[in-house]
Amino acid sequence: MNEDTLAIVHTLNDGVIRPLKAMFVSKDEILDLLAVTTVAQENLLIVGPPGTAKSAILRNFCLLVKGGFFEYLLTRFTEPNEIFGPIDIKRYQNDGVFERITERMLPEADIAFLDEV
Length: 117
Hints:
It contains 5 helices and 2 strands; from the N terminus they run αααβααβ. By secondary structure, it is mainly alpha-helical. The protein has helices spanning 3-23, 28-40, 54-65, 80-84, 89-95, and strands at residues 69-73, 111-115. 50% of the residues lie in helices and 9% in strands.
């Protein structure tokens, strides 16, 4: 592990993970996994029953790391526009370019929480 990565790990642990462990009792394993996947820039799937603080942990984590957060409650009626952004109709009409408006949508997020997967 190089010095830059080690510094990131220490900052993440001291400034984010430890305070969250103090806030969320018995969630150490999830928080440790969240830290590892953040440093490794990988995905984390958290599965659990409703009311077990999954979304609260992610919201607070995102606030502490100052990351862009996208959250959406999926249903069987969810459409791609709701997740990836609507099609830019003006751009399509004027230039013939199929492009989505992704501002504040999943493609622009640092952290995404898709609930009820």
